[in-house]
Write a structure and sequence with these properties.
The protein is an alpha+beta fold. The chain has one domain. The protein has four helices and three strands; from the N terminus they run H-H-H-H-E-E-E. It has a three-stranded antiparallel β-sheet. Helix 1 packs antiparallel against helix 3. It is elongated.
Amino acid sequence: MTGKRGEAGYSMTWWAMFIALIIVPLLVLSVEVGRYMHARGEIQKGADLAALAAAQEVDWDHLRQTGQVRLTDHAAVVAQDYTSRNVIYLTQQGVRARVTRIRVINPGGSGALPQVEVTVQADLSRIFPAYLPAVIVQVIGAAEVRAF
């Protein structure tokens, strides 16, 4: 009978080690990946809405005179404002998403409609454990300028 009890104890020890060393880290990893994807989705939403807002800031006088789409100087401020207002989850966590670039693609309107691209970047290190390296996310939002 001693042999059977020893085998049962060995089996319990093996399963305890398996759960502690394999299952728990996988569970933690899945939670962290979910948090990362949620944060990245927030940044993408902010970038898309910033691009829509910036696309509304067309310099109409310049467009009428030259046929070229150019944004006003105020477009960067508007894009940053829309980004900040639409990343609520990150703002609550102390993370700041910032607009790093705004550009107009195909400004002459030949062929395809002009587009505004807004690049938004955020350092997500505050919402992840300190032992991870810097978690910096950069996404691009785009919107068409429909002025034609």
